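Fold sample X.
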Amino acid sequence: MKMKQDENLVAFPQFPESYWLASTDVPNFPKLNEDIQVDVAIVGAGITGITTAYLLSKKGLNVAVVDAGRILHGTTGHTTAKITAQHDLIYSEFLSHFGKEKTRLYYEANRDALEFIRQTVEENHIDCQFTEEDAYVYTSADTHVEKISDEYKAYKELGIPGSYVEQTPLPFSTKAAIMMENQAQFNPVPFLRYLANQVIRQGGKIYEQTTVVGVDKGNPAIIKTSDGHKITCNHVVSSSHFPFNDPNSLYFARLHAERSYVLAVKTDKTYPGGMYLSAETPKRSLRSVLINGEPMVIVGGEGHKTGQGICTFQYYEALEKFAEQTFGLKEIVYRWSAQDLYSLDKLPYIGQELADVPNILLATGYRKWGMTTSVAAALLNTNLITRKESPYQDLFSPSRFHADPDIKTFVTQNANVAKHLIAGKLGISHKKAEELQQDEGAVIRLNGKRAGAYRDLQGTLHLVDTTCTHMGCEVDWNEAERTWDCPCHGSRFSYQGEVIEGPAKKALGKVEAE
């Protein structure tokens, strides 16, 4: 395994594991093994799906949630878990693209989501490390001071509570920062475990290991699973990160996937409180956390497009060096990574998927701010299903189109896809399977063809076809996560070829050894 170029660095765990998932017992749910009929079927059991089911079941609707894997084990279980309406330096940009009214609505939707989480935690006494924190976007570079200043002007124009400062409480010099008051952080898994238990208590159903492969439009709609079972329902909500019924609206061309990395660390210096994000790239994200009662720091950042990164251990090592330089590093307790989807205009797609199909809804494209936008999506889609007006319906409509910035982003992203499709087909690998060490993976040549190989810790060789089952791009090996990642549309597969993230629905093909 290739890692630790600098021997002075502190060792980090060999395998990635999210602290949120490790710290909380997540209940198991059965696989769907029969045809069922419900009022609302929700595909995807992350924070969006579970919160939507919670809201609808409280209103007396019969709901079923289905997930291709385990609940909360997708992006929701791998977040930094900041609950904030401060989504980087976004408000000045949104003012120029969408105007004051829509930009203010974006802030209010995320503010309302934060308030929903706060009230739910307080009213139900949920033990999930919920704490109020001020949120900062800071810069240490002269080139970004004006951007911070423009963002502060946007705050004032929009009436967002906040302030402009030169120095943050962080133990290094900053040139400027913008602070948004009274934001929050938590552990999302115990929070959502409570909501899931309430869904069951209120008569809802949750099914795991149940892959949805399509939906027949109509009233009622009929969802089909890979095992041939059907869910008949009045409404469908796609909250599966990447829309499960993608061919309807070509979301693979309207979304792109990015990965980012997280360390949970023990430090020499005391953390000063607050949540922080650098304005410049590579991104640096900071927040506090209690692990086994001991104060620690979550350090995140180092984003890149899925399947298009360098040796992925280098991203963890970059965060490690930053943590050491900033706070002094005693131990790295956990490491994990996350995948996020970006829309063409940076607004999420929430609501009625197709203009002429009112009973199929979706929620996706949260960028890296899913803790608030997912709840905003659950609140909005619940209103749409129960025929209640929402001021956010048009803002987040999946059928919207803005010439600026949609066209430019569409052309750029799809040119990138074309480049990687061609490069993958022309790429040559001279590595042979017998050269692989234990816990090493690579693209190899086998019988004159491209193949993916990984030799596990026991020495067993696992061979897969590297052609992505979504649209035929060639996947590449992700060394730090031990996965095969597609550089075109973000599908990810285990070393054995099983689907981890869509849009792909089918596993990679198996390849026989010589």
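Fold sample Y, listed below.
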Amino acid sequence: MPIHCLNQSWILETKNMGYALGINSQGVFTHAYWGKRLPKVEDYPTPPQAEKWASFNNAAHLTPEEFPTWQGMKFTEPSLMLNFSDGVRDCWLTFVSFDTQDLDFPTLCLHFKDEHYPLNVDLYYQIHEEEDLIERWATVTNSGLEPISLSRLFSACWNLPPGDQYHLSHLTGRWNDEMHLHREKLTQGLKVIESRRLTTSHHHNPWFAIDEGDATEEDGKVWFGVLAWSGNWKLTAEVTDFASTRVHIGWNDWDFAWTLKAGETLSTPRALGGFSEHGFGAASRALHDHVRNRLLPHGKIEHPVLYNSWEATTFDVNERSQSELAEIAAEIGVELFVVDDGWFHGRNDDSAGLGDWWPDEKKFPQGLSPLIHKVNDLDMQFGLWIEPEMVNPDSDLYRAHPDWVIHFPTRPRSESRNQLILNLAKKEVRAYLFEVLDKLLRENDIRFIKWDMNRNVSEAGWSDAPGDPREVWVRYVEGLYQLWGELRQKHPQVMWQSCSGGGGRADFGILRLVDQIWVSDNTEACARLSIQHGFSQLFPANTMEAWVTDAGKDLLSLEFRFHVSMCGVLGIGAHLAHWNKVERQEAAKHIAVYKIIRPIILFGDQYRLIPANQGGLTAVQYVSKDKSESVLFAFRAHLPDPVNLPKVFPRGLDANGLYELEGHPQVRSGAAWMEDGLPLTLGNFQSMLRIFKKIK
């Protein structure tokens, strides 16, 4: 059993990690340990307690709490802030009881209540033993008659071992330039990373990794975590002046309020946390396994090689143009043909049509069926682009329901890309979208949907909200999950993709609904190397769609561009009609190779051998779970000559097994390949693909 109880102390254990918490002698719910699993349950420390430091810092302020509230003389970040109906704004939680539950996985639930008010708080700890992860969330219940107003409710507070030497790794970026890995030393004070955009955002991601300043890809202690949420979120990394470090993660409390009426309950998003003593690589692989094993709707399926026609035709979509592209796509080995923006009613540019989700009568006078039949006859599946959360003012939907958008009644409605955001918190909006999209999927054999969202929020008003209008930040995302979940349940044959102008909605929350993510609108292969490196910190390769396009074609070979995109779910977005016969033949060769190695890339363990954010040389490796096969990619961008390239050292092979390497005459042990390495002979803007096969 991974949950042990020792007199109001609890030890949580995974395969390699231990986590200890409990009620100390002062009645405070404290954190005691997070790190390597210890040999015996008795080895874990007991719940700590502190002594006050003069009159300015009392014992409670100095105690590492698991779920601190705003209470008494505590001045560190709280997990919960609220306002009772009589104006009292602090919360004094006392422990009531605990139980263990089997909610698919072993789960510890700790029950608390306020000393005076009818407020109950339940804290959940779910154990994922094999993946070395603990999943946490909180539930608050108003058991009284008067409403309680919440102004902050985080999912988890993660306490690090005592010390103030920690470094924080996180992701930064912007549209067309997402997922850049950033690492910085934490100093005394509060480091805040957040999104206020209604989506996860291109700019940051709700993931963190913390080390002691000396961790590498394969060595060193790393504490890490992620939030499964697709809307506004907040991460605070706090270092106190008493050498304690902690990380809060959860809903963003900026412009947040929630009215908890009599008898109502509110649950936070899930937060995952883990510990690795084998560097950042092992931390990433734990999250990769969790995504593949626990989250993705279709599990471990081989995602098809797709072609998307957007860059070829943009809005000039019709049956003829798409049929011509489909023929070329089938010729080179594409398995899924996707029609992007421009197919629906009144859509000739980005100024009209959003909201009217049926085939344009002029472009498709017989509907989509003839094109779909054509694509199917070419032995490909058919996919489509939609942007359901948006509406153009120039649309039938908006003219009928201008009140359905997010807006302040007395303010201008700021348009971005000529569109406004439908308020998915409103049930009538969800009902309309379900009806029109369900009809589209019922009447057409569509196997793939790219769900896009091409703007962030403004004028975040909800004039007829049933509660506080600021609940829109949460209720919108819950509405999105509900709508998307109902469509997915009704049409299980459809594979869904999350897109928000690229990587604006990439998170563990959306991966419960979709199988892959469009990482960035930037498809230039050299730029993608860094983007894909950052993405891999938490997401596995089978969630990362990557296109081969004509971006950078004057500098980057077709082989280089293919190799970069083969590091995930391979897609092609170039104008195929502009490729000559030789280019098409080469593309067909690369696609054929990809289909052979696809299971290793999508489902194997990933090793970042030479990080993409440390210069012009990068290498990444994928190893099958049984260690029988491995694929290694290496890329050289621009490095001024003369230069002596370093060897690349494979990882993850069976040290005692014998491996042959494609193009190499010598059979060597896994240990030899890993310890002696592999020479790199790459010119500027050249790439390499090598396959290891275990023969004994």
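Sample Y note: The CA atoms of residues 332 and 588 lie 4 Å apart.
Also: DSSP finds twelve helices and 36 strands in the chain.
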